[in-house]
Amino acid sequence: MATITSLVDTTTTTNQGKPGDTVQINGTSLAATTRVNFGSAAVTPASVTATQVTFVVPSTAPCSGQVSVSVTSNTGATSNALPFFVIATPTTTGLSVTCVPAATGGAVTLFGTNFLTGTQVGVGSVGNVAVTPTQPSQVTFTAPANPGQVGTVSTQPVTITTAGGTSASGSTLIDYYLAPAITSVVPATGTAGDQITINGTGFVNVDTVTFTDSAAATATAVFTPISATQLVATVPGGLATGAGTITIHTCGGNSNAQAFTIT
User: Fold this and answer.
1) Where are the beta strands (DSSP E) in 96-229?
2) pTM for the predicted model, two decimal places
3) Long-range contact pairs involving 131-135 (C-beta distance under 8 Å, separation at least 24)
4) Which strands sit side by side in the sheet containing 106-113, from one edge to the other?
5) What is the pLDDT along the chain (263 residues), one digit of tens a residue?
6) Per the record, which residues fall in region Disordered (predicted)?
7) Cα(139)–Cα(113) distance, rounded to whole angstroms?
8) Where does residue 81 rank: exposed (0-12), middle (13-18), buried (19+ CB within 10 A)?
9) Do 186 and 199 touch, CB atoms closer than 8 A?
10) How far apart (Å, rounded) are the C-alpha atoms in residues 245 and 261?
11) What CA–CA distance (Å, rounded) separates 17 from 166?
C-alpha cells in the first residue's frame, strides 16, 4: 500500500500554500496512484512515479485552514493522510499615512489581514519592497522614492504578497507629492495684515505658509488656496522688519525660500 512521508508546496517549500500551487507528495509505492484526495475533493495527479506524485491545489480548496491529503490507487486502496495548510489570501484595509514625498518616499505602516507569510509590499509602478511581517494585521515599510514623477500628485496602489497570494490592487492607495515651488510673490513687500499673492507650482493641499523675518524668527500665515499655481496669504504679525523669506509646505515637502521684505 502507498505510504506518504511528506507534502511539499513547490512555491513555499513547506506543507502550506494556496489554490493553484503545485504540491509534491513524497513517499513509497505511489506508482499506482490515480487520485489525490484533497479533503473532500478528488484531484487528478499531474505526474506519478513510485516515490512522488504531484498535483495542483484545486480552486475549490477552503479559504484557509488544514486539509487532509491522501492518495488512492487503481485498486481503490487509500494511503495514510498528511495535513496541508491552505494560507488565506491577504487583504489590505488602510495606511498610517495617505501621502509621501516623491523625492524621498517615507515610512508607512500597512494594515490588513493575513500578513504573516508576507514577502513584499508593492507600490504600484514605483516598485516593490521586501518585508518580513511579525504581526498578522500590519507591517511597516519604507515607500521608495518616485524620481520619475511628472504630475504634482501620483496615486499608487499598495498591495502585499504572501504565501496566500497578492492582495487586491486598488483597495488601498497612497499619493506621491512633488514639492511645491514658489516663482513670485506680488507684492514682494508688505506689513502685517497685508494680503499678498504667491505664484508657483505644486500648490496642492498646502498645509502651511511660513514667513521668516530678518532675525530668522518664523510665523505661519492664514492663507486661501486659489489654484494649484496660486494662493493668497496674509502677512502675519510679530515679525521684524527687513528682508525675509516665504516658504510653502505640502506632503511633498518644503518649497524654495522666496524673498519677501516685511515693512
Assistant:
1) 99-101, 106-113, 120-123, 127-130, 138-143, 153-162, 165-166, 173-177, 181-186, 189-190, 195-201, 208-212, 218-220, 223-227
2) 0.84
3) 131/160
4) 91-95, 106-113, 138-143
5) 999 999 999 999 999 999 999 999 999 999 999 999 999 999 999 999 999 999 999 999 988 899 999 999 999 999 999 999 999 999 999 999 999 999 999 999 999 999 999 999 999 999 999 999 999 999 999 999 999 999 999 999 999 999 899 999 999 999 999 999 999 999 999 999 999 999 999 999 999 999 999 999 999 999 999 999 999 999 999 999 999 999 999 999 999 999 999 99
6) 1-21
7) 10
8) middle
9) yes
10) 7
11) 13
* Grid coordinates of 109: 505602516
Strands (E) across 125-194 are located at: 127-130, 138-143, 153-162, 165-166, 173-177, 181-186, 189-190
Q: Cis (ω within 30 of 0) for the bond into 101?
A: no
